[in-house]
Design brief:
The structure is a single chain. The protein is of the alpha/beta class. It has two domains: 67 residues, Alpha-Beta Plaits, CATH 3.30.70; 211 residues, HAD superfamily/HAD-like (Rossmann fold, 3-Layer(aba) Sandwich), CATH 3.40.50.1000. Helices cover 41% and strands 22% of the residues. The chain contains 13 helices and eleven strands. The longest helix is centred in the last third of the chain and has 15 residues. It starts with a strand and ends with a helix.
């Protein structure tokens, strides 16, 4: 196994100190803020020790099989809200109604896995009834920002020949704009119903929940003629776990504890482009 350590403010001394806990055969610096420790001990005790030391130093620590590279993969699938972008769009839309605290509390509970996602989305969307649809454009223009490292990550995976999928429990108003803006290959999300320029408080068609996200990843892989093990899936909330488990490599980005604990890679401090360092 290799151990990759990285962090936006990491220095060589701290990286080498944490790497030493895994008794590696060789250590290689990967730029100023990252290190690869080859032949690392990956026993449960060592993983715990490395994890604790890395967390204290604000480093991301990833144990990964030696030799795995981007060339092993054909698809990158990403969640949108709080993964590819920094905000939860529905919370910001609700802010236009003066209801952000109420909606954000439901969103947070759903992302922790404490509420059924479909039921929670129905509740949240209902609170938006009567809001002028122009609020969506305001959220996109004024509040939506890409997560750290997003553009560098996308450039890297595209250069390596991977296709890109944006699959979201959010809304097509945002996913379609991001698809065009970032040159993504496929996007799938919920459709907000708008009548006479106002939100009705309903979603058109089925809700994109955890099962639908997983099915979208599997359907996209089938359409490409690839095995799901050739997919990298990134997410942050409990509704991402099913699609993450279907993939060859799962990446938790600024994720809830229940997601971090089950992912192959957890990025708590680095940007999305940290996956390029991990996969060489």
């Amino acid at each position: 196994m290799n151990l990759v350590l990285q962090g936006p403010r990491a220095d060589a001394q701290v990286l080498e100190r944490v790497a030493a806990l895994a008794s590696p055969a060789r250590v290689t610096m990967l730029g100023a803020h990252a290190l690869r420790a080859e032949g690392a001990d990956d026993s449960a005790a060592t993983r715990r020790a490395v994890g604790e030391a890395a967390g204290a130093a604000q480093l991301d620590a990833t144990f990964i099989e030696a030799g795995r590279t981007l060339s092993d993969f054909r698809l990158l699938a990403m969640d949108m809200d709080s993964t590819l972008i920094t905000i939860e769009c529905i919370d910001e839309i609700a802010d236009m109604q003066g209801l952000k605290p109420q909606v954000a509390a439901i969103t947070e509970a759903a992302m922790r896995g404490e509420l059924d996602f479909a039921a929670s989305l129905t509740r949240r969307v209902a609170l938006l009834a009567g809001l002028d649809a122009s609020a969506l454009e305001r959220v996109y223009d004024e509040r939506l920002a890409l997560s750290m490292g997003a553009e560098a990550m996308l450039a890297g995976v595209k250069a390596a020949g991977l296709k890109t999928l944006l699959v979201s429990g959010g809304f097509t108003f945002f996913t379609e704009r991001l698809k065009e803006r970032l040159g993504l290959d496929v996007a799938h999300a919920n459709v907000l119903e708008v009548v006479d320029g106002k939100l009705t408080g309903h979603v058109v068609g089925g809700i994109v929940d955890a099962d639908a996200k997983r099915d979208t990843v599997l359907r996209t892989c089938a359409g490409m003629g690839i095995d799901p093990r050739q997919a990298i899936v990134m997410g942050d909330g409990a509704n991402d776990l099913k699609m993450m488990k279907a993939a060859g490599l799962s990446v938790a980005f600024r994720a809830k504890p229940v997601v971090r604990e089950q992912a192959d890679v957890a990025l708590n401090y680095s940007g999305l482009d940290a996956i390029l360092t991990i996969l060489g």
